[in-house]
Write a structure and sequence with these properties.
about 10% helix; Type Iii Antifreeze Protein Isoform Hplc 12; mainly beta
Length: about 260
C-alpha cells in the first residue's frame, strides 16, 4: 500500500479555511462550567415541613428514653396546620417543647417556636403508634396446656394491646402452663401463665423443716395442689399437725419452724 503525503503552502485555499475554522471553534477540552438546571436546585423547606421534621425527631428522641433497651417501631403523625396560618420558613433553630414522657402516651401536644425571621409559635397535636415484636400463640391453646416451642411465634403488636405485660423471648415460658384459653396470635402475658402443678391434693410429700441450723425431714400429705413457689397446707403423717409450707420441687415442701 502506498501512502501519499501532501504539503500545502500557507496561501493554499484549503489551508486558509482550516485556520478560520480553528479560530471560530476552539477544541473541546472536556472541562466546562455549567450552571445547574433549575430542577437540580432543591427548594427550601416550608414551615410545615420544618415543623413536621422537628416534631418527629423530638418525639423519637423522647421515645428512646421510654423504651430503653427495647426495639420499638413507631409511627408519628403530626396534625395538619390550620390553613389560615401563614407561617414563614424559620431561618433560626426551631424550638420544640414536649411534655415529659414518663411512660408511653398515644397522644401528646408539641409547642413549636420560631424566632427568625418572623417570630411565630404554634401548638400541634401529635398521635403516636408504637409496635413491639413479642411472643404470641402460634395456634389455639387451651387452659392447662403446657407450653412447647411449637406453640410459640413472634409477631409485631401494638403496644396499646400489651398493657398486661409481654415476653420478648420464648425461653422463659417453655414448660409453663396456661391458666386460661389463648387464641391464635394473642400475646403471652405473665398473668396467663403459671408453673406446672408439681404437687396434687392428697399426694404424699416430703416435709423439710428448718429450725435454726437443724433440718428435719418427715412425711406428710398435701391438702392442696400447687406449683413451685406456691404455699400449700400439709398434714404431718406422724403428728397429724397441719402446717403451711412452700413447694420447692415436685413432692417437696419446706416449712419454717
Amino acid at each position: 500500500m502506498k501512502i501519499g503525503i501532501f504539503f500545502w503552502g500557507s496561501h493554499h485555499p484549503l489551508l486558509r479555511l482550516l485556520i478560520a475554522l480553528t479560530i471560530c471553534f476552539p477544541a473541546y477540552t472536556g472541562a466546562a462550567s455549567l450552571d445547574p438546571a433549575p430542577s437540580q436546585i432543591l427548594p427550601s423547606p416550608t414551615a410545615r415541613q420544618q415543623i413536621e421534621r422537628g416534631i418527629t425527631n423530638a418525639v423519637a428522641v423522647n421515645l428512646t428514653q421510654v423504651f430503653k433497651n427495647t426495639q420499638v417501631r413507631t409511627d408519628i403523625n403530626v396534625s395538619n396546620l390550620d390553613a389560615r396560618l401563614k407561617l414563614s420558613p424559620c431561618t433560626a433553630k426551631l424550638q420544640i417543647l414536649l411534655p415529659p414522657m414518663q411512660r408511653f402516651n398515644r397522644r401528646t401536644n408539641a409547642k413549636v417556636r420560631c424566632d427568625a425571621p418572623t417570630p411565630w409559635a404554634v401548638n400541634i397535636p401529635v398521635s403516636i403508634r408504637a409496635y413491639m415484636t413479642v411472643v404470641v400463640a402460634s395456634n389455639q391453646l387451651l387452659r392447662g396446656h403446657h407450653i412447647s416451642p411449637g406453640d410459640i411465634a413472634l409477631a409485631e403488636i401494638d403496644i396499646e394491646k400489651l398493657r398486661f405485660g409481654y415476653f420478648t423471648h420464648s425461653e422463659p415460658i417453655i414448660g409453663m402452663q396456661l391458666k386460661r384459653n389463648l387464641t391464635v396470635n394473642a400475646p403471652f402475658t405473665p398473668k396467663l401463665l403459671r408453673f406446672p402443678i408439681v404437687i396434687q391434693r392428697g399426694e404424699q410429700v416430703t416435709i423439710s423443716a428448718l429450725a435454726s441450723a437443724l433440718r428435719v425431714k418427715t412425711n406428710g400429705v398435701a391438702l392442696g395442689s400447687g406449683s413451685v413457689g406456691d404455699k400449700i397446707q400439709i398434714r404431718n403423717s406422724k403428728s397429724q399437725r397441719i402446717v403451711e409450707g412452700k413447694i420447692t420441687s415436685p413432692g417437696h415442701v419446706a416449712v419454717n419452724m
